[in-house]
Write a structure and sequence with these properties.
By secondary structure, the protein is of the alpha/beta class. It contains 8 helices and 10 strands. The protein has a single domain, classed as Rossmann fold (3-Layer(aba) Sandwich), CATH 3.40.50. The strands form 2 sheets. A 6-stranded mixed sheet has the order 6-7-8-3-9-10, sandwiched between helices. The protein has a 4-stranded antiparallel sheet with strand order 2-1-4-5, with helices on one face. The N and C termini lie far apart (45 Å). Pfam families: ABC_tran.
Length: 248
């Protein structure tokens, strides 16, 4: 089953986006960034600490409003939307995976997976949610609470939750940052399979060149601007660019 249309379509797009945070001392976190995340692709966003990676992700996802420029999610100009239309668009079109899992501790695995669809006012697609829980290997844990699971299992629940609503884009901010190597590997495998088998679009911020090497394309940020891109890069190639950026 394909969740997104052909590769030429941008699932998310930033056009000349700048962002200065109130209280950020006037220094922009992003300065005129343009980036296009093709539907059905897996992109990684890398760059030194403070280069604007999370800000880019949050602007693309409608979690932050840019100070200038345009953001389109599945072709919709979300900058033009006021609350609560922006929240509705984000809930309908974006799925999220965060470093800290962000599961609701009082809810079961199953309730966590269905929650975004409920919040979006959608009737949860239980058959599909069951299938994604199966895919992440946790069908037998649907009644468990998050604190009964390992970190790797909790992040797999978060991936299932992000996929369950069939969003146009899954935004992942350091999804392997809190995991050991093998749990991180499992989560990256799931994200890769979501792209290859389901046609999902994934945009992932990471510090780890080995994680970025799972992506089709790596976008490098430095000081709030796009420095460069790599296609189908190895971890060593990604690490070489990071070394160059860190030495600046
Ligand atoms: N809410 C905020 N208020 C003020 N400044 C902020 C806020 N969020 C981020 N910044 C600043 O914006 C710049 C870019 O931050 P951002 O978190 O996007 O970078 P990053 O590349 O994701 O960093 P890291 O790798 O350390 O997570 C930094 O200088 C940061 O201090």
């Amino acid at each position: 089953m394909h969740l997104a249309s052909g590769p030429a379509v941008a699932a998310a797009e930033l056009e000349d986006v700048s962002k200065t945070y109130p209280g950020g001392g006037g220094t922009p976190a992003l300065r005129g960034v343009s980036a296009r995340f093709a539907a059905g692709s897996f992109s990684a966003v890398m760059g030194p600490s403070g280069s604007g990676k999370s800000t880019l992700l949050n602007c693309a996802a409608g979690l932050e409003r840019p100070s200038a420029g345009r953001v389109r999610l599945a072709g919709e100009d979300i900058g033009a939307l006021r609350e609560p239309a922006l929240t509705r668009a984000r809930r309908r079109r974006a799925g999220f995976v965060f470093q800290s899992f962000n599961l609701v501790p009082a809810l079961s695995v199953w309730q966590n997976v269905l929650l975004p669809q409920r919040l979006a006012g959608m009737r949860p697609d239980r058959a599909w949610a069951g299938e994604v829980l199966e895919r992440v290997g946790l069908a037998g844990h649907r009644h468990a609470r998050p604190d009964q699971l390992s970190g790797g299992q909790q992040q797999r629940v978060a991936v299932a939750r992000a996929l369950a609503g069939r969003p146009e884009v899954v935004f992942a901010d350091e999804p392997t940052g809190a995991l050991d190597l093998s749990a991180g590997h499992e989560v990256l495998t799931l994200l890769r399979e979501a792209v290859d088998q389901l046609g999902q679009t994934v945009v992932m911020v990471t510090h780890d060149p080995a994680a970025a090497a799972w992506a089709d394309r790596v976008l490098f940020l430095a000081d709030g601007v796009v420095h460069s891109h790599l296609e189908r890069a190895s971890a060593a190639e990604v690490a070489a660019v990071m070394t160059e950026l860190s030495a600046r």
